[in-house]
Amino acid sequence: MENKILLIQVQKTPNPNALKFVLPEKKFAQPLNFASAEAASAHPLARQLFDLGQIYNVFMAQDFITVNKLPDAPWSPLDAKIQAVISQFFRDE
Known about the structure:
Blueprint: E1 9-12, E2 18-22, E3 28-34, H1 37-40, H2 44-51, E4 55-62, E5 64-69, H3 78-92
Antiparallel strand pairs: 1-2, 2-5, 3-4, 4-5
Helix pairs in contact: 2-3
């Protein structure tokens, strides 16, 4: 079994409560937006991101995922957990 490592670039956005996780290739044919855990329940990756807690929105388009956290939640260690979830999801696909 090959152990693929997904290189994810993390970029700041104008919103301090949002980070953009850029993937090495296009993964989403159409934009997907999830504004709640309930809305994300049918999408495995979005659901896993909401399961981390302190997240209120997940937006996926082409080769990136933007994650919004609650204003009082610190990015560290949440950003590393987000990267791990994304990497594991695409490793298993």
